[in-house]
Description:
The protein is of the alpha/beta class. Helix 5 links the parallel strand 3 (96-100) and strand 4. 41% of the residues lie in helices and 13% in strands. It folds into 2 domains: 3-9 and 268-384, Aspartate Aminotransferase, domain 1, CATH 3.90.1150; 15-263, Aspartate Aminotransferase, domain 2 (3-Layer(aba) Sandwich), CATH 3.40.640. It is globular. The protein has 12 helices and 12 strands. Strands 2-8-7-6-5-3-4 form a 7-stranded mixed β-sheet, with helices on both faces. A 3-stranded antiparallel β-sheet has the order 9-10-12.
Amino acid sequence: MKIYLDNAATTPTNKEVIRAMNPYWNKNFGNPSSIHSLGVSAKVAIQKSKKVLADFLNAHDREIVFTSGGTESNNFAIFGLINALRKEGKKYSDMHFITTDIEHSSISECFKELESRGAKVDYMKVDEFGIINSKDLRNLIRIETILISICYANSEIGVIQPIRNIIKEIRHFKKENRCKTPYLHIDASQAALYLNMNVEELGVDLVTLDAQKMYGPKGIGALYIRDDVSMDPIIFGGGQEGGKRSGTENVPLVVGFAKTIELANKNREKENKRLTIIRDYFFQEIVKIIPEVLINGHRKERLPNNINISIPGYDGEMLVLRFDEKGIICSSSSACASGNGESEVVKKISNDIERAKSTLRFTMGKDTKFSDINKLLNTIKKICQN
């Protein structure tokens, strides 16, 4: 039996989620836009699922838009807002955006594209632990700033950004300048399983969710859009999802996503405690085996399931293959990275290419046990001490 420690890349779909989806493949298979009984049944299933997500976020049903996953949600958050502004006559050259220099490619590539169109983008630096200083925003926000996009928890090193401090800086700027923007978008694809997702408490305007990171099905995500944020679609067609995202809704996946959210809510506190204990145990033991090991990211301000280390003198990708041979599944960087053999995030926080190349990411999940981590530690000892 293999030990799966790559849950940040994707998670296995929960059996209860699969059971919830099953009737909607070939029994209640109607098109939600149809007016007959099968269509109405499908429509009701979507409405109920949307309410589950809305309750999870402490939001309104109308503020939830289903998408194909985290990448589309991130693209929609950025370009949907821009499309609305462009329709109002705003030029790219009049737009300013702020993000960080360790964002997921589905964010960073959007901003690179915007720069090519003439928009201005500032990339906030992070400290050696991967965390931004929210006070740095004071020198970056200006009247032209439309959107600030920051990942709630990093997919590679698991660090949690100080969202509440960030929103304080944004609110202070808005009050001082009597303006509506900038809006704050957070990618919570990795965070939703473990962190507070109450949008009223967080104060955010746009939130990305991805079911496949939460023991849900692949191919379904969502974007929360606060009521006062004007968005235009990036996909055109039949006007589904309140005109914001055209295309026949994938009812089985939507229902599966809702079940995923219900289970996440139910198990969050218990899982957080359990995984934090296992994570900290690993950090405690690994330095006894390899004293020179480097822990990437903040030791405490990180997701409970995230372990990211660099072992000097070893190639991370080669170690991933060696571990695979031993029955341990892990990674060396994000699954959506460019594949250049190094962790871009670790390179940014350390300014050390060799450290970035020797990176290993172990992301635990609901099936991870202490015995799994002990096997991992023993495997590291055998491979790296011989």
